[in-house]
Backbone:
């Protein structure tokens, strides 16, 4: 059975370009409820830990440098079938392949500068949510 929660980050480039508002609007319009949210700035060590599943991949250094280059918005989102539906809303990891009308098609610039992160499984949604939020920060 699929879970009802996923985790997202609005990445530094989208924050810098004032895209927080439009992206959150699209998330709400698509039926997701914000269960937790934080405006924060990862340091390099924290970005490396968050993306530790990608250690050794050619893009790991660029990705973690970029993700620690400025503030981000982290959030837990609630909806039936959350992981899959959110991945549909954001579109493909590579913005060149993202479908029309998706968040990445509208706001992403490249693979690493792809505007938003979305969990790829229920299991990772839990791990990623726990990285940022304690129980008392969830409503
Ligand atoms: P995200 O959803 O944050 O999860 C892992 C990230 O790694 C992904 O979005 C991309 O930003 C990045 N990524 C994945 N594959 C590549 C790649 N081939 N080149 C550069 N960045 C990548």
Residues:
């Amino acid at each position: 059975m699929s879970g009802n929660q996923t985790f997202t980050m609005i990445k530094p480039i989208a924050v810098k370009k004032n895209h927080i508002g439009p992206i959150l609007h699209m998330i709400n319009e698509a039926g997701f409820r914000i269960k937790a949210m934080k405006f924060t700035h990862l340091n390099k060590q924290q970005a490396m830990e968050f993306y530790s599943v990608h250690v050794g991949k050619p893009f790991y250094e660029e990705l973690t440098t970029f993700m620690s280059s400025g503030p981000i918005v982290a959030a837990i989102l609630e909806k039936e079938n959350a992981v899959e539906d959110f991945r549909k809303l954001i579109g493909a990891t590579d913005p060149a392949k993202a479908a029309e009308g998706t968040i990445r098609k509208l706001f992403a610039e490249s693979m690493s500068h792809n505007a938003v992160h979305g969990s790829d499984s229920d299991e990772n949604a839990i791990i990623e949510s726990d990285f940022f939020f304690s129980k008392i920060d969830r409503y």
